[in-house]
Design a protein that fits this description.
- With 591 residues, this protein is of the alpha/beta class.
- It folds into three domains: 226 residues, Rossmann fold; 170 residues, Glycogen Phosphorylase B (Rossmann fold), CATH 3.40.50.2000; 161 residues, no CATH class.
- Helix content is 33%, strand content 22%.
- It contains 19 helices and 25 strands.
- Strands 3-2-1-4-5-6-7 form a seven-stranded mixed beta sheet. Strands 10-9-8-11-12-13 form a six-stranded parallel beta sheet, with helices on both faces. A five-stranded antiparallel beta sheet has the order 20-19-23-24-25.
- The chain is globular and about 80 Å long.
- The two termini are 52 Å apart.
- 39% of the residues are buried.
Length: 591
């Protein structure tokens, strides 16, 4: 579909982390994704990129002058292919840097709108998303369409490797993302599978997943130098923290010394000192046995990492868990063999190329390291042959998923709507006809609903219900639904009530679906998009009601020998359960 004549989609990009990290000499993996996606959207047609930052649970938009200065500075600082990176700072960046030291000054410069209705909020850094209030403010002020890049859920699956409190914080992040966002970009199938499992365990609505593998920086594509007759060494890259498993490698090196191995190879440790690793720090600082054989480099630039990788025998990557494993992909892209943990995600990032060993099988690590250290290592030579077939992930490939999201937003924009899933937007009756949302009513059934009422709030923002009233709904099912693109459900509410005040999402067979509402007097027609649904012999249509998204299911069973459907069951939760706030209400607070 062509969009040249359409107004661009405004992307409000959360640059809170980029702003906070503006003086960091070297980027983390999250930093790279954050910056790369901002730069890509900045150049993409039909996209108007606006960078913003958080303060006091709200989002503020930077003026273009400072947004551009921030991106140009970080692009030069973190992504330059030059061996000697220019540290020159523009006058605009220097001004931004000074102003950002005082939040009140930065807030005074923030732009106030008005903002276009056709917009989306995108967050690639995990910043701010532990706050439901922040995301609620985004939905009210900027856009209900939110896109999140999720790097991992390690604090939830492996809390023993993170700081105290990180598990609860990250759980809130994922819960909020699943509540407010329907589009998730993920860096690996392993990350996606773990989020799917979390959804199954908690009953959360499955989002639309888009695999967005982290690209390798082009500077790593240059081939490593040919093996030279120099002292053999191995390299570890990554922050010194418990899950990276530096301890095991240092113990292997101490064992090499204590067992009397001759010609012990060197170990080069690249990465800053992190947290909860006092035993590792003690070995690095106090162990005389390994001191002659272990070199701690600390933080290093990409150019320095490449220099160390180029002459090493192999990268050692004994990590317990990863979201993707960027150092592994970078080493392989540079033509460097690797010995890596035998965990699922590293089979993704490593494409089956490395030697895979269980992270706690220290004897196998020891044997493999000694083998690879030898000039005539057969195993290493075989891996170098496998490396010739390695196709490193590129950033352009990573953007493909984002392209699909932008295209879908633009497609819906051409239909006259403002995003993928906005319960409070409307299509006119004529608009529905224009887009071929015709259907044949083959069956009708009137059903009584218990307490089908709009959301009401008291002075504290809590929810309550009205008692003693009822309403009815009429369902109409489209003819030949098995081959149809849409399902139409008509709901009639009595007493002047409205469906849009409680409906927050619709799912088909557990996957969130696009839907539109067409209202006419007291009748609301819900048109559910089935194009991405698994139309097997049964369909489960789920309506999510209220802020807490309580599910209400409509079970349909298709008859493959006819054009129609048989209704099996339909049950609706009481609004007393589906709409009450998190604090709950006692009977005295109900009018």
């Amino acid at each position: 579909m062509e969009f040249a004549d359409k107004e661009p989609i405004t992307f409000f990009f959360d640059a809170t982390r980029l702003l906070a990290r503006r003086k960091a000499e070297t980027p983390t993996g999250i930093d790279r994704v954050d910056l790369r996606y901002a730069l890509y959207l900045e150049k993409k047609e039909n996209v108007d990129l606006r960078l913003g930052f958080s303060h006091g649970q709200k989002f503020f938009v930077l003026p273009f002058r400072f947004s551009d200065a921030l991106l140009r500075h970080l692009e030069d600082l973190w992504l330059s292919d030059k061996i000697t990176v220019s540290r020159g700072e523009s006058a605009a960046f220097k001004t931004l840097h000074e102003i950002a030291k005082t939040p009140e000054k930065l807030l005074a410069l923030a732009e106030s709108g008005p903002w276009p209705k056709t917009a989306a909020y995108i967050n690639c850094s995990h910043s701010n998303i532990s706050s439901a209030k922040f995301l609620e403010n985004i939905s009210l002020q900027f856009s209900e369409e939110m896109i999140f890049y999720i790097h991992d859920i390690i604090p939830m699956t492996h809390p023993e490797y993170v700081r105290k409190g990180d598990k609860d914080t990250h759980t809130r992040r994922i819960e909020n993302v699943l509540q407010y966002g329907r589009t998730l970009l993920v860096n690996s199938l392993d990350t996606e599978n773990k989020i799917r499992k979390f959804c199954e365990e908690t009953g959360a609505l499955l989002p639309d997943f888009h695999l967005s593998i982290i690209g390798v920086e082009p500077k790593f594509f240059a081939s490593r130098q040919a093996d030279m007759d120099t002292e053999p060494y191995f390299v570890m890259v990554g922050t010194i923290e418990p899950r990276k498993n530096h301890l095991s490698m240092l113990l292997v090196w101490r064992d090499l010394v204590e067992s009397g191995v001759l010609d012990i190879p060197k170990l080069v440790v690249i990465g800053r000192r992190g947290w909860s690793s006092e035993n590792v720090f003690a070995l690095l600082d106090e162990c005389d046995a390994i001191a002659p054989h272990v070199i701690e480099v600390g933080t290093a630039s990409d150019a320095e990492v490449i220099s160390y990788l180029s002459g090493c025998k192999a990268l050692l990557f004994p990590t317990f868990t990863e979201g993707w494993g960027m150092p592994l992909a970078e080493a392989l892209a540079h033509g460097v063999p690797a010995i890596a943990s035998d965990i699922p995600v590293l089979h993704e990032s490593g494409a089956g190329i490395p030697e895979y060993i269980h992270p706690l099988d220290l004897k196998s690590w020891r044997d493999c390291i000694l083998d690879y250290a030898q000039a005539g290592s057969k195993a290493r030579a075989e891996q170098i042959e496998r490396l010739e077939k390695f196709n490193p992930p590129k950033w352009q490939d990573s953007y493909g998923a984002l392209d699909k999201v932008v295209e879908k937003l633009l497609t819906h924009h051409t239909l006259g709507t403002t995003g993928l899933n906005h319960p409070f937007d409307r299509l006119s009756d004529q608009g529905a006809q224009d887009h071929d949302w015709e259907y044949s009513k083959i069956d009708e059934e009137t059903i009584e609903f218990e307490n089908w009422y709009p959301r009401q709030t008291d002075s504290k923002g809590r929810y309550y219900r009205w008692n003693g009233q009822s309403s009815t709904a009429r369902l109409a099912i489209r003819d030949r639904l098995r081959d149809a693109s849409f399902l139409s459900i008509s709901v009639r509410c009595l007493y002047g009530l409205s469906l849009d005040s409680v409906l927050t999402a619709v799912a088909v067979n557990g996957r969130q679906a696009d839907y539109r509402e067409v209202s006419s007097n007291d009748l609301t027609e819900i048109i559910v998009d089935l194009s991405n649904a698994d139309q097997s012999n049964s369909l489960l249509i789920t309506f999510f009601l209220g802020e807490r998204r309580r599910p209400v299911d409509l079970n349909l069973n298709t008859d493959t020998r006819s054009l129609g459907f048989n209704f099996f069951s339909m049950s609706w939760l009481s609004l007393k359960e589906s709409l009450k706030g998190p604090e709950g209400l006692d009977s005295e607070s109900n009018p």
